[in-house]
Amino acid sequence: MVYKVLSIGVGILGGQLAGVVFKQVWKRAAGQDDAPDADDRNYPWWQVMAAAALQGAIFGLVKAALQRTSAHGVQKATGRWPGDD
């Protein structure tokens, strides 16, 4: 139960962290402050799709890293891996 609550908090923080990381990566890679929105006609398809793929990859990576780290923390604190019966 504690892990579920911890997981929710970690997920919220992870989403915010991933957003910050994505914004910085996009700024450096594309030289623009903001990534293109899918409905912005001023950007070509490839740029919109590249931004979406990069954003998804960063969010997935941050989510997995934080979940794994919190699971290790729970195991260290309790001696049990979350979800094991």
TrEMBL record:
InterPro entries, alphabetized: DUF4235
Spans traversing the lipid bilayer: 43-66
Keyword terms of this UniProt record: Membrane, Transmembrane, Transmembrane helix
Designated name of the protein: DUF4235 domain-containing protein
